[in-house]
Amino acid sequence: MASGSTTLDASESDKRRQILDGAREVFLACGFDGASMGGIAKAAGVSKGTLYVYFDSKEALFEALTLEEKRTLAENLFRLDHDDPDVPAVLRRLGLTFVDEMCRPDHVAAVRMVIGASEKFPRFGRAFYEAGPVQGAERLRVYLDAQVAAGRLRPADTALAARHFLDLCAGGTLRRLLFAVGDPPTAAEKSYLVGEAVRVFFAAYGPET
Q: Dihedral sign, CA of 164, 165, 169, 174?
């Protein structure tokens, strides 16, 4: 009986993933207002009846999609080794993967989409922000606290320090791309941006000599 239940749960999870993948395709192509449940059902390869079993409205589907994607992104990006003594190297690796992710065209499109929908549905913007930027900064704060305790960074407001580092890495670049100004940075430009972010971060938060 337990085995059958597990199989059913896996099937339900796969179907939900299938729907979310179809929704992502449609929302990115059409925006929130332009997307329809019929179009999403077609893209996902399910009937409208099946779609409504999982999500009772377009708003619920949009919110679930943005929450899951940002939460997964924070979990995948912010896997930091608290015991690695080479803090600049850890931050550089984080910075490069963070910039890569923030500059992906589909990520930029997703941010624009959420911003556009948030005027009508403010909870979308709040949920997106709390599941992604807030969670990422919080995971970095925990890492920075461990480095302060180990004497590798000076005592400071680590919540603010985490936000500083992430903004130093990608804040200006993401804002530029959101307004469609110029091309995404090259690998060399990303390396330079992150290197400077680490340098400035350590000038402010490095260990006291």
A: negative
